[in-house]
């Protein structure tokens, strides 16, 4: 079993910044691609960013240039630095991890979600 714990969400004013963290724990042999997705009120879940094990990143058009995804492979932790936040960034942010356990099983895991609210 792999557990994902998200943190760093909260209330911030437009133009402000937040840093989200997603820490993976458990009997993990390796972690592949990690990513962030978000779900706005009444909307479908959307892609935000991903990062591969080698550090290659992709971003959704709406966050490109403002958000930065990174990972620490020693700590099995992923981060999302969010700058120049806009009210439309308000959403529940979910981390996603593709992990291989020590027994050789590879599965997809989701965090519990953390609320980000951008409002004055």
What does this structure look like?
With 120 residues, the chain is mostly beta strands. It has strands at residues 2-7, 10-12, 18-26, 28-39, 45-51, 57-59, 67-72, 77-82, 91-101, 106-110, 114-118. The N and C termini lie far apart (40 Å).
Topology at a glance:
Elements: E1 2-7, E2 10-12, E3 18-26, E4 28-39, E5 45-51, E6 57-59, E7 67-72, E8 77-82, E9 91-101, E10 106-110, E11 114-118
Parallel strand pairs: 2-11
Antiparallel strand pairs: 1-3, 3-8, 4-5, 4-9, 5-6, 7-8, 9-10, 9-11
Features:
4-stranded antiparallel sheet, mainly beta, 120 residues, 7-stranded mixed sheet, 61% strand
| Share of β-strand residues | over 45%
Number of helices: 0
Order of helices and strands: EEEEEEEEEEE
Radius of gyration: 14 Å
> Tally of extended strands?
11
Instruction: Report the biggest beta sheet as strand number plus sense, adding barrel if it closes.
Output: 7 strands, mixed
The helix content is: under 10%
Low confidence ranges: none
Mean pLDDT: 96
Indicate the overall shape. Answer: elongated
- Going by helix content, strand content and strand pairing, the class is mainly beta
From the N-terminal CA to the C-terminal CA, the straight-line distance is 40 Å
Summarize it.
The chain has no helices and 11 strands. It has 120 residues and is mostly beta strands. A hairpin with a 5-residue loop joins strand 4 and strand 5.
């Amino acid at each position: 079993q792999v557990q994902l714990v998200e943190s760093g969400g909260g209330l911030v004013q437009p133009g402000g910044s937040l840093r989200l963290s997603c820490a993976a724990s458990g009997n993990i042999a390796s972690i592949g691609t990690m990513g962030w997705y978000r779900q706005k009120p009444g909307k479908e879940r959307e892609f935000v960013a991903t990062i591969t094990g080698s550090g290659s990143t992709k971003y959704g058009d709406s966050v490109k240039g403002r958000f930065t995804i990174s990972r620490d492979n020693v700590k099995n932790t992923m981060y999302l630095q969010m700058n120049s936040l806009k009210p439309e960034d308000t959403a529940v942010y979910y981390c996603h991890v593709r992990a291989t356990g020590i027994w050789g099983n590879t599965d997809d895991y989701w965090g519990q979600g953390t609320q980000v609210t951008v409002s004055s």
